[in-house]
Give the backbone structure.
Amino acid sequence: MPARDVVFVGSFTANTDTKYKVEHYLQDLDLNGYTLKDTEELTGTTGATVTA
């Protein structure tokens, strides 16, 4: 290591095609569980907020 302070500067770019999955469930009529109704395979930007 150097005998003096060293500053490192980084640059990062968010991935714009990050894959994620949204699962939609319906509550069972007997209220004892949930059943998977639909699944969506989507892509988005890492760190971004998504809305449904």
User: Anything to note?
Assistant: Residues 17-52 form one domain. The radius of gyration is 22 Å. The longest strand covers residues 34-44.
